[in-house]
Please model this.
Amino acid sequence: MGLRILLVATHHQKALDDQVYHTVTAIRSLVDTYDVVVVGDKIKTVIAEARRLDGVASVLKVENALLKHQLAEPVVEVLLSIYADYDMVVFPSNTTSKNILPRLAARCDISPITDVCEIMDDHRFKRPIYAGNIIETVSTKQPKKILSIRAASYSKSAQMNKEHGRIVECACPELKCGSNYKQSRMNQLDRPELTAAKIVISGGRGLGSTTDFDLIYQLADELNAAVGASRAAVDAGYVSNDYQVGQTGKIIAPDVYVAVGISGAIQHVAGMKDSRVIVAINQDADAPIFKICDYGLVGDLFEVLPKLVLHLQKRK
Amino acid sequence: MKILVPIKRVIDYNVVVQISDDQQNVVTDNVKMSINPFDEIALEEAIRLMEIGVAKEVVCVSIGCDQSQEQLRQALAMGAHRGQLVTCPDTIAQDPLCVAKILAHIVADGAYDIVLMGKQAIDNDCNQTGQMLAGLLDWPQATFASKVRTIKSDQIEVDREVDGGTEVLRLQCPAIITVDLRLNEPRYITLPNIMQAKQKPLNVLTLDALKLDLATKLSRERLEYPAARQSGEVFTDLTKFLKKLDEDGVWD
Ligand SMILES: Cc1cc2nc3c(=O)[nH]c(=O)nc-3n(C[C@H](O)[C@H](O)[C@H](O)COP(=O)(O)OP(=O)(O)OC[C@H]3O[C@@H](n4cnc5c(N)ncnc54)[C@H](O)[C@@H]3O)c2cc1C
Ligand SMILES: Nc1ncnc2c1ncn2[C@@H]1O[C@H](COP(=O)(O)O)[C@@H](O)[C@H]1O
Model:
């Protein structure tokens, strides 16, 4: 029998996380078919979506009220009850999986390989270290492997029209949880999502205030783009933390990334340097961002942005 | 409450890291080393919990080479009560599962209520050790903390930074918390504090003394630089810049 792979499909209650589709592409570089597990509560629509993933054989469904928020402790108990049938357990890399995967790995006594950016074969993988400034090739002889895949490194797989995956209802083991979910404050987005958008406009400390960060939104709206930010902009309170791009924020690779008033610190660049085209606007000609951009403009963003918006409006 | 804060010695975040000639390692000779920035934030939080009377004792532990004493001394100067170093080969210190097993051993020995640690080491960027430790100890965990509040003497509420926003969890201690950058801003160390820290206890053990059976399960084949980006064209004239973007179809 070939390599048996289990994809742990993280989701946000209504739909699969976008990174799942990128992870499918990575998995399909090794195998034609694989199984998916979806863990949660009242996840009918997510299960239906998972059945339409390209190449999926079975969709393992585990439902329980305690699994609703995909907290690490109960989810790990569930995965412990199913992982033994597989040679490889693969997660998309996102905050949900980062919380769960290492806990699972420790319980299985497996050293995982996370944020894989290239699968070389079934036991050799590349992953970025030092904020993506170095790529490490890691190999392992462990018979079972646990991996997470960096979405920015793999293209998105297609969604099939037919729900072809076979549903397998799995019994939920007894669950206990020492942490109690209280609430979430999820930010309502009326723009494309940062990790999925074709164009991203990011603002940095140079924007100077929350009010002036509006200039970024105006440009984004003109281009139907997502909005991102540097850590400095997050720290200054211009935007909330989930906008942060970088080593310790989101890693993205849109078609076009526009950095406005961002100096280009290595920690920021780590999150966006795989973008197809990088555009930078900064008043300091020596800013490091100009060393990695395809198109740069030395200028005052407060003069440039309104003119850029006008220019784009006229083009329509 | 008694709090353990793991402290990892890493290449300072401002250093441009170079690969050694044999492609097996990064160059550390004459390179500035620091406390992993996230660990500094974890320590700051622990000290604040002490200052408001919630924590009674803050212990720092590092796993690594002998020179990690420098980072532990710095942690003591920030306000930790005592330090512990477990010396071991670099391959062990860089392996989250091995480190988690060593930490689990130390925790089991010390009656800790909370382990406050960094969410990620900025060298290997693993983001694993805290969650692994929580798994090994079977303790509840709250990762990526941006706020920590004590509810009762044995209950903690944590705001976590997650992809879509913030999630709030209430944990029953003993528990593991891993911290994000926004939790706090670590204090500066003053000269009197550095002098004082020299008197604080710093215990050094070898890994052998712990009698743990540890083996790394991953091997590094090689290191390489990612493909470099070609730097493009930088304009000073807005009109020319806009024209070029249009011509190249950047927005289409
Ligand atoms: C452990 C660690 C992790 C980190 N992780 C991240 C991360 O994930 N993401 C991240 O972004 N950062 C991260 N950082 C922070 C990072 O090191 C930088 O401090 C940060 O990216 C700087 O943000 P910035 O470019 O907006 O600000 P600055 O570096 O202050 O740059 C502001 C820029 O705006 C320009 N400017 C100012 N006014 C104008 C104007 N009117 N018109 C045009 N340009 C103007 C200036 O010339 C300057 O280049 C991390 C740091 C550490 C220590
Ligand atoms: N060798 C080490 N010594 C002390 N603490 C460590 C060590 N390795 C990892 N840690 C802790 O684990 C956190 C996460 O590290 P990592 O999982 O390697 O990204 C760090 O921020 C430290 O708090």
Chain A touches chain B through 91 residues (CB under 8 Å). Residues 44 and 88 of chain A are 26 Å apart (CA to CA). The pocket of adenosine monophosphate (ligand 2) is lined by residues B 6-8, 36, 38-39, 62-64, 93, 96, 99, 117-118, 120-121, 124, 126-130 (CB under 6 Å). The mean pLDDT of chain A is 94.
